[in-house]
Amino acid sequence: DDASDWKVKSGAEYLDKFGAQMQRSSDLVGKMTSFTLGGHIFGRQDFSRRGVAARQTVVATVMKGYVLSAVLNANDPARTETLVAGCRAMNCTWC
Q: Cα–Cα distance between 29 and 91 in angstroms, integer?
């Protein structure tokens, strides 16, 4: 997404706006957190889908004027953490 369309300068700002849309069908789980990957700060927000045994974690950053985001899906919190740990461990030469 074009960061200027969302009027955001960071992944955290994007997740604030994106999270408001997600709350139509999901509940926020915990507070937004962040982590660094390849020198970029990624925001992270977890969601629990209503009526579905699924957990979604959205991570996002703004790079070169664009929002880079990923949605990680798992059926329980432990598997979600495994996916996030995998993201953090990536060799991010493309960043």
A: 28
